[in-house]
Amino acid sequence: MTKISRRAQSLGTENAFVVLAEVNALARQGKDIISFCIGQPDFPAPLHVQEAAIRAIREGKHGYTPSAGIDPLREAAARYMAGMRGGLPIRPEDVVIGAGAKPFIAYAILSTTDHGAGDEVIYPNPGFPIYESQIIACGAQPVPVHLREGRDFAFDPAELEKLITPRTKLLILNYPHNPTGGLLSRKELEAIAAILQKHPQVWIYADEIYSRLCYAGEFFSIAQLPGMYERTIISDGASKTWAMTGWRIGFASNPVLAPVLTRWITNTDSCASQISQWAAVDAINGPQDAAEMMKKSFFDRRNLIIRLLNGTPGVSCRTPGGAFYAWPNVTKACRMIGAADSEEFRKRLLHEAGVALLADIHFGARVPGEGQHVRFSYAASNEAIEKGVARMADFIRRNTKKAA
Do the domain assignments include residue 53? Predict the structure, then answer.
């Protein structure tokens, strides 16, 4: 009998899309669902970006491009990433364009670890689920570093230091962070850099896709610290900043690994969509009014949802420093309604109240001692936020009475 590989059997998924399929099935049955499960801007791409794509189509820009991307986009992305990161010496030849930022997670792991050699990759937990999935699929060993609510969902650098071994080859950092919205402060990054100075074999994958959605001052990258630039793979892209998730344009930079990342693209996607690449040139070089408007809207929504969540029975929520996610603690709410954990809470909330969230277990194993959490993506209208949180509050009140 033919069988699928162990690698394929172990491959994880992104549960936001699994829950979305469940939400869509309920909606087709006529159920009224308010969804907070997908992390993408609820705005269209800026008009000048749309027009640039149409222009590229009409000008016949339909074929393959170089695997590393078209020169105008590599040049624009180099200027953009350098400008966002204190003037780092990023050259166009250091930049590689991908079909979204997500593929660079796998390319980075594949470029810094060897399959089955016992190489270790440290990654944040909770975290974007594709980190752990790709570490395992690429034949490396996943080593979680736990994010703590008491640290506003950063990790203790001392915990990181204990995890590093001679087998550690890559450290994944994500800030602003999915799913918590947490940040790593400059002080924390300096402490991390000081630890890494003792371990020159460790590369850094800096997932900075939410760099333009930082609400606590200017964004600061670990690559800006002494000795970190050459060993940091900086990953960014067009999806979150310019509402271009479906256009699939990401960019990564490293002066040593750019040619290697390019070869991975040649072996997989050949190149990113030429039409999307030309649109991304205009996204970076054109007016930034729409991007700034989106950021302000997310900031206002963040303040609204945090206020409402902290007024909900049995719920407490830290104020996230960036992105568009809230990570409320629902430990008390679970006890109040008799739910065993956050996943039961999520399922009951969806089916009984029509509110779609993700549970903490969709982002890795629960951190010991940290309680139960769920994720809201507040890339939703003020009306949806108000209505959705109100439904959740009513759901908790009703079920608390039943439990009593």
Answer: no
| pTM: predicted TM-score of the whole model, two decimal places | 0.96
- Tokens found for residue 96: 């590689």
Give the count of domains, the chain. 2
Predicted confidence band of residue 23 (pLDDT cuts 50, 70, 90): confident
pLDDT of residue 16: 76
CATH of the domain at 375: 3.90.1150.10
Domain finish residue from 285, 314, 329: 285
Two tokens at 220? 């600061």
